[in-house]
Amino acid sequence: MKPAMKWTRFLIPTLKETPADAVVPSHRLMLRAGLMRQIAAGAYAYLPLGYRTLRKIEAIVREEMNRAGAVELNMPAMQPLELWQETRRDEAMGETLVRLADKAFRRNTVLGPTHEEVVTDIVRASINSYKQLPITLYQIQTKFRDEARPKSGVLRTREFLMKDAYSFNPSKASLDEVYDEMYAAYCRIYERCGLPYVVVEAESGPIGGDASHEFMVVTDAGEDWLVRAEDGSYAANVERAEYAPVEKASGAADAALAEVHTPGLSTIDNVSEFLKCKPSDMIKTLIYDADGDVVVALVRGDHEINEPRLKRHLGANALALAAPATIERITGAAVGFAGPVGLSGVRVVADQAVTVMHNAVTGANKTDYHLTGVVIGRDFEIAESADIRFAVAGDRAPNGSPLVFEKCIEVGHVFKLGTKYSDAMKAHFLDENGKSNPIIMGCYGIGVNRIMAAAIEASHDESGIIWPINIAPYTVEIVALDVREQEVMATAERIHDELEARGIDTLLDDRDARPGFKFKDADLIGIPLRITVGKRGLGEGIVEFKRRDSEDVEKIAPDKVVEHVAGIIASK
RNA sequence: CGGGGCGUGGCUCAGUCUGGUAGAGCGCUGCGUUCGGGACGCAGAGGUCGCAGGUUCAAAUCCUGUCGCCCCGACCA
N or C: which terminus of chain A carries fewer CB neighbours within 10 A? Predict the structure, then answer.
């Protein structure tokens, strides 16, 4: 029998006080429970207790990946820059890509933020026939991204553990099949991890349709927003969220077009305050550079432009706000006074909500002036309109149900890539007819550390963590009181050994400390099942059994408790 | 990258404005009393005050630079 896993032989540096830098609950509790320690901004050491949970999550992910038919491999974190140049993602990722400097080797090496290039490189060298497809490869590996702002403990870091899977398919139908299988595997993974998750539609990229889903955990600590219909019919991320068209307000008479002096007032807020109008009465005019062409986008003053959507609408590769010089050339005015009236010779895309505006306020294309009483059709024409804004509170889903916004953290993403990488890297295969085709790819990511943090965000109380049973560092904690009493320790150790013999992870708190102290720590580290062995109880012929998520205490004979615990775990 | 804040013992912080030889609580070590929800007493250990310059008889404190960390925002294959 292996020696009991005793607290005194382990490293669990719990903290009574909260470190000042920790703000969100998961960060605070992971620090206080001794799960991890910060080493640098966005880089954390996982201490033994935290590492056990990480490993348990990994094991669940691995099992489900294998069950879904994916094959595990391991690729280097350190990668040749050359591969990134092949797909031009060295440019696309910009500053986020961690590059090394100095000496030839380092100049030509990056730390991988993800592994599309590397797997594709491996696959193109070893797969040439449809007979070898489909195949899905995955790894669980450390990624590096120079995030501009690491935050919220382990929720956003520069170094993190990710399960990344890549499918290689001979056809769209084959990709669809794998995608569905992965989707199902993801659901099983989050369920087994005890995470309350929501699947949302995400911006789908080149293939379109239902080609991308994100797995979200709703929590205030999150940094993304999901949007869902109140009736539950629909959920999407903000970029993707669909909404019903804004209806035309019923008919005030046309106002007269007037030019007003607005010296130095170049923002929606400034102008609306000065002119005593609502931001929603204003037209925001944004000038973009889309692959070198100037495009003007119009959205209502209180709306935010959805750049990914505009980009998609335009079919542009690169989209960015135009340089001030361009704006001045197009509008003939300083930045901040652009408007659609009198603009000519440029493509103008109006958001749908703009098309129903009436007597609007907008820039006059003249420095320090705005126009009021702008009427569409009289003062300017809308030739092209689309949904190019983000949904906002008050919008309705296409079916009319009100949209609800919730803060969330992304814990997984499945995505149909298509041939983006196989085209760029010439990963081709010969089909049944001997014809060469690019391999169709999908990619599937899971943030392992994020699952851990999200689980804590979703399950804790004032006293500490309440671990879901499958990812708890230990399943059972035995709190031995009166550790100097031989009978107490002998009983505690016996229960420990019997539980371990049944494959139940058990931690034995054998510290010579006062009971209250040990109970507080037990609540903090949040082991789901607790057995208390004390002199007093043994005198009555019992030990106590308590679940972390309940206040009830059960008194059980020492030789019955193992069976009892095993029964509870089996019923999970 | 813009804005704000903070670096003083392992942790939480006071001291900085108004320069004068570094403090508290928690934790840690030893002894004793305690012992079912973060005990108490006594005795201890532990800090070049982020770093580098400067001003001064004298710098945690004032000045300059620099590094790091947190928060808000921008960004996020």
Answer: N
